[in-house]
Amino acid sequence: MTDLTQRPLPLFYQDPQPLNALTHGALRLKDGDYGFAAQTNAAPLTLVEFASAARGYPVVFSQGETPFPMAILGLGAGNRFVADGRWAEGVCAPAYVRRYPFVFIEAGGDNLVLGIDMASERVVVSGEGGAALFEDGKPSALTEGAMAFCREFHAQHLQARAFGAALVEHDLLIAQQADARPAGGQPLSLGGFQVVDQARFAALPDAVVLDWHRKGWLALVHFHLASLERFVDLLAREQTPAAVIAPSKVSVEV
Description:
alpha+beta, 7-stranded mixed β-sheet, 3-stranded antiparallel β-sheet
């Protein structure tokens, strides 16, 4: 069985460093692709992405004390939405992926500073390639844009944590696995994630239902449950073009 990729967050980042003009004044950033995400089978999601993500990916929740919404990108160890560095057409890459190589780094207390993964192939330490991160000792428009993106992402991240905590509080999550049986191929099995138990969800007290309705959380659960149908589409991405995909060959036992 394959589990959702288990590695400490933040995914993808190998050498994140806080950006400052004194140390990184000469840094530049060149264009790149999504090759860095080709080997991960899941990526975190924010709540505002649920509606669009549910149309392209199975949306599930990670295991652990603080479950977090995740988009499943592959039934094996790799990402079936990246080929030759390009993300698949018709589906939007999660914001977590799109912000790379930028990231917020804790700087004591509640302070956060913009950082960058110095190990990224896009980072130009010396030379004229790419766009400048600093101009005249001040953040460039590129860096200011990255700051705004990461600030919004962080706010959405906190909301997703609160949603996950509420699911735990009401005991709605159950451990699950997806079993795929390709025609003429080896069975595939993906575990290490959780889904909402529909019976428990239907039994929520009226007061909780009203509160979640006002917060927009009821819709999120429905998007999540509907997205489980995307396991069929994900299986199709695991196959060769000639493979025959039958919906009955994929089961997610909820």
